Prior knowledge:
This protein is mainly beta. It has one domain: Beta Barrel (Porin). The protein is built from 1 helix and 14 strands. It has one helix at about 1-20; strands spanning about 30-40, 45-50, 55, 60-70, 75-95, 105-130, 135-145, 150-160, 165-175, 180-195, 200-210, 215-220, 230-235, 240-250. The strands form 2 sheets. The chain has an 8-stranded antiparallel beta barrel. Strands 2-13-12-9-8 form a 5-stranded antiparallel β-sheet, with no helix packed on it. A hairpin with a 3-residue loop joins strand 10 and strand 11. It is elongated, with a radius of gyration of 28 Å.
Amino acid sequence: MRTKMLILFFITSSLLCYSQEYPEFLEYKKMGYSIAPVTTRPAQFNPTIGDIKVTGSWTPSLSFGLNWTAHADREVSFRYGLHFNILPIYDFKYELPDGDLPNSTNFFSNDRNWGPLYISVPLQVELKKQLGPRLYASAMGGVNIAWIPEGSVEVGASVLVEELNEVREFFELRSQTREFPLYPNLRLSLGLYFMWDKLLLQTNVVYQKSIPNYFTGEYLFDNLEISDRTEGTYSYRGDYIGLEFVFFLKKRKQRKTKKKEKTLKNVYIN
C-alpha cells in the first residue's frame, strides 16, 4: 500500500512539473459557479416472496455550488468545491390486477418525492488540452464526499372499504440512511472550455458512482383480495449522470495610478 502511494505521488509530481502551461486561464477568477441538472439511477426492488413487481424510475434532480481551481494555468490542475444537491428519496411505480382492491380496476401507482438539500465536497484532478485558440478539452476524475444526516423514509398506501367502513393498508415501504453521515462517491467528467473576453464557460458530461447505498430498507404488499403477500428488500443509490455548467468570470483589470510628483519651489526673498 505504501509503495502504491509513493508511485502515485511521483506520477502526480511529474505531471505537475512537466505539464504544459496555459497562462490565459489566470485572467479568470479561481472561483466559479456551477449548476448541473442530473438524473438519478432507479432504486432496486428485490422480492423475496410474492410476484408483485415494483419498478424504480430515473429521477430528475439538481446540483449547484461553488468551485475553486488550484494551478488553473497548468495542464494538470486540481478542482475542489462546495455543492448543494437536491436529494431524491424515492421514485417507483407498480400495478395491481383487477379485483385486488375493492371497487377498483387496473390500479396503478407512481410515487415520487424529494428530500432536503444535502452538501457534498468534490475533490478532483483535471487534465486540459488545447483544441483551438479559445477552445480546450477537459477530463476530471476524483471523489465527491456527500454529507447526509441520519434519517428514515416511510411510504404507505391504503384503500377505503365502504362495506366494512374501514381503511385497509395494502402497501408499505420503509428505508433509512446509515448512521455515519459521510458518503464517498466516485466522480468522472468530460467536457470543453469555451473562452470569451469576459467569461470562461466549462460544460461537462458528469457521472457519479456511489460506493455505499444512500437508502436501504424493505417493502411489503398485503391485505389484497387476489394477490398473495409480497415482500422484499429495497436500496437506493446516489448514482447519477448529468450535464454540468461552470462559469468563471474574468478578473477586473487593476487601474494603474500615476504617482503625482511633488515639486518643491524655492522662494527667494530679496
